[in-house]
Amino acid sequence: MAGQVLFDTETWRQLLGLVLMATVVMGSPGPATISVTAVGAAFGLRGSLAYVSGIVLGTVAVLMVVATGLVAVLVSVPKLAPILAVASASYILYLAFRIATAPPLAANDDQAARPTFPAGFLLAIANPKAYVAIAAVFAGAGGLGVELKLAVLALMIVAIHAVWLLAGTACARFLRQPVASRIINLVFAATLVLTTALATFS
After folding, report:
1. For 99-153, what is each residue's pLDDT tens digit?
2. With CB atoms 3.0 to 4.6 Å apart as the test, which of 108, 117, 147, 160 could cross-link to 27 if both were Cys?
3. Is residue 1 part of a domain?
4. Closest to 15 (Cα-Cα) out of 137, 149, 135
């Protein structure tokens, strides 16, 4: 069976389509991806790993919720969606403030000030874009088995957030200068708020 899948050109075509769709839809700017980039820029690679791990595992949890159909049950619960939206927006505004006011990277030695694993996990599961994007991608590859789609999309979640994190840390070398640090952090904070508003109200 595994050998048949390995040499089945139609399966490979569908896998390629799934990866491309995930890259475009799940990898596009949104609250989670922009926050990963902003945190990477403001706190550096090592200072961001706990937060990004939380984002990744939280997004994988969203994937599981979508795959098992639990998202339909959650949506049917009265007033739950607005509560999640308010909680997510509140934390994102707080995170944007933290990013906008983060000191230059060379002076950023306060471990307590760095975003944490639970913060990343909570943002991921309360991120409205994640449910819509993952559901669209998951449904768009109907010819593949559920287990294969789960495995591929879980790997894509890791890869997408790793790329956004590296993009943020690439800016870190500019953040050792106070003026550049303040400008870049403000831009990232504003972009985070904007993408969240677009994901929530679109």
Report:
1. 777 766 555 555 546 788 998 998 888 777 788 788 878 777 667 788 888 899 9
2. 160
3. no
4. 149
Total domains present in the chain: 1
Distance separating alpha carbons of residues 28 and 98, to the nearest angstrom: 23
3-state helix/strand/coil string of the chain: CHHHHHCCHHHHHHHHHHHHHHHHHCCCCCHHHHHHHHHHHHHHHHHHHHHHHHHHHHHHHHHHHHHCCHHHHHHHCCCHHHHHHHHHHHHHHHHHHHHHCCCCHHHCCCHHHCCCHHHHHHHHHCCHHHHHHHHHHHHCCCCCCHHHHHHHHHHHHHHHHHHHHHHHHHCHHHHHCHHHHHHHHHHHHHHHHHHHHHHHHC
Task: Supply the pTM of this predicted model.
Answer: 0.73
In the structure encoding, which two tokens stand for residue 172, read together?
A: 């870190």
pLDDT digits (tens, 9 = 90+) for 6-52: 556 777 888 888 888 888 878 877 788 888 988 888 788 888 899 99
Domain ranges, residue 108: 10-201
> Is residue 45 a part of any domain in this protein?
yes
CA dihedral over 174, 180, 186, 191, signed as positive or negative? negative
Residue 28, domain member (yes or no):
yes
What separation in angstroms does the CA of 25 have from each of 21, 28, 185, 192? 6, 6, 25, 17
Residue 4: inside a domain: no
